[in-house]
Design goal:
201 residues, mainly beta, 2 domains, three-stranded antiparallel β-sheet
């Protein structure tokens, strides 16, 4: 979305898009002041054109804390940077020698986790969950299943393989699990999968 051709390094013409360095003195952060850019969010034509239910909102692509007034200076030098609140500005300065990049998207259709189901089997669960999760299998024939529970960021918290006849309930103890949202994935040997969201109290 920047759409700015040319040599950005140490060039005041591009001072409003530089993201590095927020510092002028050496140490842990690199020095030199705001005179370069290495930070991007790359978007496809589909995102730019909104061809697949998500569209880039024009003029929303920005480097947080970049006010265009600190070429070759530190982020917190004079003149006062008012592009973000003071506490945010100080946090940006202290956390890194780069500025974060953000953009806004217009979402035109429901997105997120879909509770999918294959025709060969289904599972029912108690939800929300207190101490034990009951996973009831509805299957046409005895089959082996893999049960995986993970956090929303992908960390596995439970895994088990079970052999299930035509109907069976598996009890999974979750008392020690912290409260929050989790994903239950149940899949057979053919990788057909059912995914359910779990709310742990």
């Amino acid at each position: 979305p920047l759409d700015k051709m040319g040599s950005w390094h140490n060039n005041s013409y591009y001072q409003n898009i530089h993201t590095q360095s927020t510092h002028t003195s050496s140490g842990c952060p690199s020095s030199g002041g705001m005179d370069d850019r290495f930070d991007f969010i790359l978007v496809s034509d589909e995102i730019m054109d909104g061809a697949n239910h998500a569209k880039y909102i024009e003029d929303s692509y920005e480097a947080v804390g970049q006010d265009g007034q600190h070429y070759n200076q530190s982020l917190v030098s004079s003149p006062t940077n008012t592009s973000v609140p003071t506490d945010v500005l100080n946090a940006l300065y202290e956390m890194s020698d780069h500025l974060p990049i953000t953009l806004n998207l217009l979402i035109g259709k429901d997105v997120g986790i879909v509770e999918s189901r294959k025709a060969d089997f289904d599972v029912d669960i108690n939800n929300p969950v207190n101490d034990n999760l009951s996973v009831h299998f509805n299957v046409k024939k005895s089959t082996g299943f893999h049960i995986v529970i993970s956090s929303l960021w992908g960390q596995g918290v439970y895994s088990e393989t079970v052999s299930v006849p035509s109907s069976q309930t598996v009890i999974i103890p979750l008392k020690s699990l912290k409260a929050g949202m989790y994903l239950l994935q149940v899949y057979d040997d053919n990788r057909n999968m059912v995914v359910k969201k779990i709310l742990k109290n």
